[in-house]
Design goal:
Length: 179
């Protein structure tokens, strides 16, 4: 039995869940999330809990068991608390600012980089070297943070670039001949 999959997902007060076939809708104080679950999984809502079971011990069903339960847990957490990722910008002249809802990045290119957030994502720039990505959909928040980071990944020699808040970038030495 999957250690993650066998745990029930608790439905807190103020959260309404609806299961129609394999289409799950979770409605909470921060918003509404919908997802089509895999048709092989067995999902049931009982007494303020969502239970996920698998039909057999096949490898594919075992893998889907924990995944399905984790996706449901992320939906419930998202509509109650939300998710947030913080990015840090390192480098001389590298900075971020907001233009309306769009993120304006100066990353050493000949032009500024403008990034429009998708529906459901809020961007904040508390200072010019910090970007906060927030939303209720964990997958969308992570993807948006990865898309921003992809514009200038941290390089190992000077450490310049965009990195996650607690990301460790292994530093390398420069050329051996230079002093």
């Amino acid at each position: 039995m999957s250690r993650i999959g066998k745990l029930p997902v608790a439905i807190p007060d103020g959260v309404k869940t609806t299961l129609l076939g394999m289409h799950l809708t979770v409605n909470g104080p921060k918003g509404v999330l919908e997802r089509d679950l895999h048709p092989d999984m067995i999902v049931a809502i009982q007494d303020k809990e969502i239970l996920v079971t698998r039909p057999s011990e096949k490898g594919a069903h075992r893998a889907l068991h924990g995944l399905t339960r984790a996706l449901i847990q992320n939906m419930v957490t998202g509509v109650t608390q939300g998710f947030e990722k913080t990015l840090k910008i390192e480098g001389v002249g590298y900075r971020a600012s907001l233009q309306g809802k769009a993120l304006n990045l100066a990353l050493g290119y000949s032009h500024p980089v403008l990034i429009e957030p998708p529906e459901g994502i809020a961007l904040a720039v508390p200072d010019p070297t910090t970007i906060k990505v927030a939303g209720i959909d964990r997958e969308l928040v992570g993807q948006m943070a990865a898309d921003i980071r992809a514009w200038r990944k941290p390089e190992p020699y000077k450490g310049k670039g965009i990195r996650y808040e607690n990301e460790y970038v292994r530093r390398k030495e420069g050329k051996a001949g230079s002093k």
